[in-house]
């Protein structure tokens, strides 16, 4: 028998753009046939509407729009030599399913309904879909292909069911979002399913970003002997062929291109880059605008923005006050010049003084406190938002996960903006990523993307004389470990204390996390890179009487 070519179509779709996604699906099929002589083109989960569509699925017209898209695919497929395996929400007898459809030469050959509907972390598919309970297969060139969708592969039953009904190869459509460590988890999982069933598995994953989620691609094919035969590059669109053959001794999956796994820090960095790029581009902003303070958070954010959009689409603004050090001003200007971005410096002291004059009667008889510090941040927020309105650039905030966790940020000040690149990045990881980005530059013979003394100096908000973060917070290595245990692993305060931390400090930090939910609920969306970020992942009540303890 001749080889059968399955092209993994690792594509970036736009949620809700059913007509645009449909045209892309057809174009990619033609490309797969022309470039790879594909017999089957395998797309990501919910190809036609994008993932996750959330409450768009509740719109009354979604069924009509999907049907028009399917009619277009059926018409296009009449002149194609390849089958398309696409994902779409399908209504049957008034019930909505997450489906995979096999479209071949003008017909829907078979339809599979996703069985395992995730309802944890960032997923809430049980809100929308009913679960299927049957396997679905189709035959081409003497090979029987089984179908499954994303979460199905994380459970043994759907793959075993496909094997029991005679599948030779399992095709799996995915929209699997990234978090740290996820790429290796997927490969190990596919190899486990292959070991259990003896089936080769071809796994196409989406790529691109949708709000806080990043889909990192990394589509792959694993043989029935658990060998990794093909692996696509992550973080970019790709069309990657997998050759399979039926022989007298069984199904052979031929060895193809296997990309080297990316280093963990490179994975995180690329996730942040694609998260910002797609948010700005898909929402129609001209570029990114950020306050450049001379500190490490804004320095890393600027580097990511330049890598995401190019320097010509990034604007930076230094907004000094009397407490701003000369070092910060110098480093901000140097970085902007090195990266080639638009740079301005606007002193906020006149605005601050005007506010203080207007508030003089209200503040009479009171002592200075954080109110005056927060007013500085709010002056900066007003400036950035005004420039955003005028120029059409998205304000990109620069707070990290450690600060956002404990409320070390100013509502309507440094939190004012449309997207937060570092929202799910702990402070210790900020330092690692900054050094990683500089190491990248040095390997290419370029100047540091972030001035080295920005990385080396103690972090400070510079809202008061000689202020450093550790005046208010524990050392970041300790803080980040406590926050990881409390936020990402759901340890109680007492369990964190048992892990080796001071009880008073732990109770204070966990209390700060709890009482600052109101701030985070008003914070801009940002890229998720951990197993539990703030946003879709973690839904705690703002008003609650929970207290630290066991």
From TrEMBL:
<keyword id="KW-0520">NAD</keyword>
<feature type="binding site">
    <location>
        <begin position="291"/>
        <end position="298"/>
    </location>
    <ligand>
        <name>ATP</name>
    </ligand>
</feature>
<feature type="domain" description="CN hydrolase">
    <location>
        <begin position="4"/>
        <end position="246"/>
    </location>
</feature>
<dbReference type="GO" id="GO:0004359">
    <property type="term" value="F:glutaminase activity"/>
</dbReference>
<dbReference type="Pfam" id="PF02540">
    <property type="entry name" value="NAD_synthase"/>
</dbReference>
<protein>
    <recommendedName>
        <fullName>Glutamine-dependent NAD(+) synthetase</fullName>
        <ecNumber>6.3.5.1</ecNumber>
    </recommendedName>
</protein>
<keyword id="KW-0436">Ligase</keyword>
<dbReference type="GO" id="GO:0009435">
    <property type="term" value="P:NAD+ biosynthetic process"/>
</dbReference>
<dbReference type="InterPro" id="IPR022310">
    <property type="entry name" value="NAD/GMP_synthase"/>
</dbReference>
<feature type="active site" description="Proton acceptor; for glutaminase activity">
    <location>
        <position position="45"/>
    </location>
</feature>
<keyword id="KW-0547">Nucleotide-binding</keyword>
<feature type="binding site">
    <location>
        <position position="176"/>
    </location>
    <ligand>
        <name>L-glutamine</name>
    </ligand>
</feature>
<dbReference type="GO" id="GO:0005737">
    <property type="term" value="C:cytoplasm"/>
</dbReference>
<feature type="binding site">
    <location>
        <position position="403"/>
    </location>
    <ligand>
        <name>deamido-NAD(+)</name>
    </ligand>
</feature>
<dbReference type="InterPro" id="IPR014445">
    <property type="entry name" value="Gln-dep_NAD_synthase"/>
</dbReference>
<dbReference type="GO" id="GO:0005524">
    <property type="term" value="F:ATP binding"/>
</dbReference>
<dbReference type="GO" id="GO:0003952">
    <property type="term" value="F:NAD+ synthase (glutamine-hydrolyzing) activity"/>
</dbReference>
<comment type="similarity">
    <text>Belongs to the NAD synthetase family.</text>
</comment>
<comment type="pathway">
    <text>Cofactor biosynthesis; NAD(+) biosynthesis; NAD(+) from deamido-NAD(+) (L-Gln route): step 1/1.</text>
</comment>
<feature type="active site" description="Nucleophile; for glutaminase activity">
    <location>
        <position position="150"/>
    </location>
</feature>
<dbReference type="GO" id="GO:0008795">
    <property type="term" value="F:NAD+ synthase activity"/>
</dbReference>
<feature type="binding site">
    <location>
        <position position="519"/>
    </location>
    <ligand>
        <name>deamido-NAD(+)</name>
    </ligand>
</feature>
<dbReference type="InterPro" id="IPR014729">
    <property type="entry name" value="Rossmann-like_a/b/a_fold"/>
</dbReference>
<dbReference type="InterPro" id="IPR003010">
    <property type="entry name" value="C-N_Hydrolase"/>
</dbReference>
<feature type="binding site">
    <location>
        <position position="120"/>
    </location>
    <ligand>
        <name>L-glutamine</name>
    </ligand>
</feature>
<keyword id="KW-0067">ATP-binding</keyword>
<dbReference type="InterPro" id="IPR003694">
    <property type="entry name" value="NAD_synthase"/>
</dbReference>
<feature type="binding site">
    <location>
        <position position="398"/>
    </location>
    <ligand>
        <name>ATP</name>
    </ligand>
</feature>
<feature type="active site" description="For glutaminase activity">
    <location>
        <position position="114"/>
    </location>
</feature>
<feature type="binding site">
    <location>
        <position position="182"/>
    </location>
    <ligand>
        <name>L-glutamine</name>
    </ligand>
</feature>
<dbReference type="Pfam" id="PF00795">
    <property type="entry name" value="CN_hydrolase"/>
</dbReference>
<comment type="function">
    <text>Catalyzes the ATP-dependent amidation of deamido-NAD to form NAD. Uses L-glutamine as a nitrogen source.</text>
</comment>
<feature type="binding site">
    <location>
        <position position="374"/>
    </location>
    <ligand>
        <name>deamido-NAD(+)</name>
    </ligand>
</feature>
<comment type="similarity">
    <text>In the C-terminal section; belongs to the NAD synthetase family.</text>
</comment>
<dbReference type="InterPro" id="IPR036526">
    <property type="entry name" value="C-N_Hydrolase_sf"/>
</dbReference>
């Amino acid at each position: 028998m001749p080889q059968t070519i399955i092209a993994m179509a690792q594509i970036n779709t736009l949620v809700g753009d059913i007509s645009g996604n449909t045209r892309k699906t057809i174009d990619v099929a033609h490309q797969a046939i022309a470039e790879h002589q594909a017999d089957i083109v395998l797309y990501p989960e919910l190809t036609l509407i994008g993932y996750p569509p959330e409450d768009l699925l509740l719109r009354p017209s979604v069924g009509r729009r999907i049907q028009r898209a399917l009619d277009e695919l059926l018409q296009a497929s009449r002149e194609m030599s390849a089958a398309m395996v696409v994902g779409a929400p399908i209504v049957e007898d008034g019930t909505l399913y997450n489906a995979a459809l096999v479209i071949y030469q003008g017909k829907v050959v078979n339809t599979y309904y996703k069985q395992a509907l995730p309802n944890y972390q960032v997923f809430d598919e049980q809100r929308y879909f009913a679960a299927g309970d049957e396997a679905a297969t189709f035959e081409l060139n003497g090979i029987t292909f089984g179908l499954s969708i994303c979460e199905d592969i994380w459970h043994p039953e759907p793959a075993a069911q496909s094997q029991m009904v005679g599948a030779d190869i399992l095709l799996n459509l995915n929209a699997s979002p990234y978090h740290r460590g996820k790429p290796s988890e997927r490969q190990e999982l596919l190899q486990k399913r292959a070991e259990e069933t003896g089936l080769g598995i071809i796994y196409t994953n989406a790529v691109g970003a949708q709000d806080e989620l990043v889909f990192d691609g990394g589509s792959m094919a694993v043989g029935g002997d658990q060998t990794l035969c093909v692996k696509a590059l992550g973080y970019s669109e790709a069309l990657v062929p997998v050759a399979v053959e039926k022989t007298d001794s069984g199904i052979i999956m031929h060895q193809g291109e296997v990309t080297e796994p990316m280093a963990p820090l490179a994975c995180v960095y690329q996730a942040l880059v694609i998260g910002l790029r797609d948010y700005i581009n898909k929402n129609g902003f001209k570029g990114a605008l950020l306050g450049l303070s001379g500190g490490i958070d804004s320095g890393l954010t600027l580097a990511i923005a330049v890598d995401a959009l190019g320097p010509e689409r990034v604007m930076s603004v230094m907004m000094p006050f009397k407490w701003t050090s000369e070092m910060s001003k110098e480093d901000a200007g140097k970085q902007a010049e090195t990266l080639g971005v638009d740079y301005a410096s606007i002193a906020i002291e006149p605005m601050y003084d005007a506010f203080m004059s207007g508030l003089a009667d209200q503040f009479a008889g009171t002592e200075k406190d954080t109110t005056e510090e927060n007013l500085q941040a709010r002056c900066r927020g007003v400036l950035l938002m005004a420039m955003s309105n005028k120029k059409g650039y998205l304000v990109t905030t620069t707070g990290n996960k450690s600060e956002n966790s404990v409320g070390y940020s100013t509502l309507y000040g440094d939190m004012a903006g449309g997207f937060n690149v570092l929202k799910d990045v702990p402070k210790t990881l900020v330092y690692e990523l900054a050094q990683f980005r500089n190491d990248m530059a040095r390997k290419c013979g370029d100047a540091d993307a972030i001035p080295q003394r920005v990385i080396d100096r103690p972090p400070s908000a510079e809202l008061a004389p000689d202020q450093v973060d550790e005046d208010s917070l524990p050392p970041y290595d300790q803080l980040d470990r406590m926050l990881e245990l409390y936020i990402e692993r759901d340890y109680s305060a007492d369990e964190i204390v048992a892990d080796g931390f001071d009880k008073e400090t732990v109770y204070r930090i966990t209390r700060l996390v709890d009482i600052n939910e109101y701030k985070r609920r008003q914070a801009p969306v940002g890229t998720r890179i951990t197993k539990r970020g703030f946003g879709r992942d973690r839904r705690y009540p703002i008003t609650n009487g929970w207290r630290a303890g066991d």
